[in-house]
Amino acid sequence: MKRASPPNFDQTAFKQALGQFATGVTVITTRAASGQLIGITASSFNSVSLNPPLVLWSLATRSASMPVFRVNSHYVVNVLAASQLELCKRFATVKGDRFEGVSHAEGDTGMPVLDGALAWFECHNRSRYEEGDHVIFVGEVERCGVHENAAEIAPLVFQNGQFHGLKQL
């Protein structure tokens, strides 16, 4: 098999090009063996398969949350609404207890489902693939749900280093 050619661009150019792709924003949540709730903001979420129902997301190998996500059997992908921008920022930047004051419920596996999420996917941590400086997590969806007013709620979107809400065309 022929190998890839060396890139003809620097990391800054690569980030700029990637930034043009608009992505939805999620908070991935789980519970550590100690009982501590863990959550991180991620825009690297995608569907993989309808049968079986599979989704994927990725996490930097250097993330402080990596040891928990690597070994846990379950996690929840919470798709954020545009009105949840502060929640997005909290799970991306706050040190300490990110769940303090955050309204949530326990899913069937005891993992936190964020109140007000546009949609959620309760996943079994099916497989992990180390690629470059990230680990790709593939989750088998055991349960999912959609906000009762989803048709009227704008999703939170990230593009070109900024957050947006979408409007119908």
From TrEMBL:
GO terms for molecular function: FMN binding; riboflavin reductase (NADPH) activity. Gene3D superfamilies: Electron Transport, Fmn-binding Protein, Chain A. It holds the Pfam family Flavin_Reduct. The keyword Oxidoreductase applies. Residues 18-165 form the Flavin reductase like domain. SUPFAM superfamilies: FMN-binding split barrel. The keyword rRNA-binding does not apply. Keywords: Oxidoreductase. Belongs to the non-flavoprotein flavin reductase family. This is Flavin reductase.
